[in-house]
Amino acid sequence: MYIKYVRRKAFWMVLLAVFSISASMLSHAEWVEWVLDPTVELRNDSNVNLSAFSADEESDTTLRLALEGGRYYQMSDRSRLRLTANLEAQDYDEWDLLNSLAISGRIAVVHKLGLGKKAGWISPHLIFGYKDI
Predict the structure, then answer these.
(1) Can you list the pairs that 32-36 forms with residues at least 24 positions away whose Cβ atoms lie under 8 Å?
(2) What is the model's pTM?
(3) Fewest CB atoms less than 10 Å from the CB: which of 75, 85, 88, 113?
(4) Coil, strand, or helix at residue 40?
(5) Which stretches of the chain drop beneath a pLDDT of 50?
(6) Domain spans of the chain, in order of start
């Protein structure tokens, strides 16, 4: 019980720190670009039920449609805030009970650690949403 309390408290403290650092950078920031990322995927899954035995494997074809849209917010020379909304639908050909519809949102802070193409970056993010199967 105490461990759960400590973990929950630590999570909220880290989240508060990320947002307070982000908020302090926002005074010199501006919106820089829109993001629109549509996805269409047709997939044949040879082991839908994830069986360990080849005799029990079931296969199916899946159609997945997804759309992600949002904005980037430039906070500093090397830091950006990304706010997006996502919508996703999956349709199985034979296994109808696996069909799903999901809606979610994402808040991410992207910080580049150096200069040039090969410089690393760090991106903590928070995802929230709902999925109906």
Answers:
(1) 32/72, 32/73, 32/74, 32/80, 33/71, 33/72, 34/69, 34/70, 34/71, 35/68, 35/69, 35/70, 35/71, 35/72, 35/82, 35/84, 36/67, 36/68, 36/69
(2) 0.62
(3) 113
(4) strand
(5) none
(6) 29-132
